[in-house]
Amino acid sequence: MSPGSTPILLLHGSWHAAWCWNEVIAHLVPYDRQTLAVDMVGHGLRARRPECLTMRPFDPARLATEVSPVADVDLDRAAELLVRQIERLGRGSRVTVLAHSMGGVVLTRAAQQAPELVAHAVYLAAVMPGSGEAADRYFALPENADALVLPALRGDPTVTGALRLDLASNDPAYRQQLRAAFYGDVGPIVADAALGLLSPDAPVSMMRGITRLTRDGWGSVPRTYVVCTRDMAIRPALQRLFVAEADAAFPENPTSVATLDSSHAPFLSMPGEIAKILGELD
Predict the structure, then answer these.
(1) Which CATH superfamily is domain 8-279 in?
(2) Who contacts 55 (Cβ-Cβ below 8 Å, separation ≥6)?
(3) Of 59, 126, 153, 226, which sees the most CB atoms within 10 A?
(4) For 81-134, how does the pLDDT look when each residue is reduced to its tens digit (9 = 90+)?
(5) 19 contact partners, CB below 8 Å, separation of at least 6
(6) For residue 276, what are the contacts with CB-CB under 8 A and spacing of at least 6?
(7) Spatial contact of 129 and 37, defined as CB atoms under 8 Å apart
(8) What is the 3-state secondary structure (H, E, C) of 116-146?
(9) Strand 118-124 relative to strand 95-100: parallel, antiparallel, unpaired?
């Protein structure tokens, strides 16, 4: 393929699905780039919901303890699916892959396993873990202080096997907490619509998996990190830490960095800016 014609694959983060890229795909049309948004395993059309959210009368205790139907989804399965999706889109050629949030963990594993398939790895406010590091270690670091996602979780992930959001809640304070965590610069109507499309359970096993990174694997893939400066889910200081760790480990292949003055969901608030970043990559 000629420069500028590399296909683009868009991978969402926890609780989200392929729908979140609709506006970005529309803005990519002028760049004439074949683009595909996919669902991660355990999400979107591949999601399964706990019974406690639809049972009546509602049982708060069961919300906190019911084992998730996606508790068995791990990083191995997620990466296996992503590699197949990349192969399907590329049809023998390399693909630019953009991953958002926890999708970054899956992209990292896939790029380590099959670096020959990835033309460019783009991390949008994403977890970009170091070699042998699990994603969950990072969320407790000082660089992620004041993040709003963990306080919004319901139940014990070691019991439920999931990072669970109470998306059926009608508590105004709780719903505002979710809007602030993900969609701080998104209009309230669109933000509420997005909340209605989320899956309640994100598999906790995915964030506990680790990937050993090598110079001829993930370390060989060109990468760009897009820092979101108003992010309340993965704080900007933590995003910059991911970049610093990657560049220290693989200094011969430094990370290109772009910045958006956005919340955790620029695919809703700044889709044109994301499209521009992607469209200008070879």
Answers:
(1) Alpha/Beta hydrolase fold, catalytic domain (3.40.50.1820)
(2) 62
(3) 126
(4) 999 999 999 998 999 999 999 999 999 999 999 999 999 999 999 999 999 999
(5) 37, 44, 197
(6) 27
(7) no
(8) HHEEEEEEECCCCCCCCCCHHHHHCCHHHCC
(9) parallel
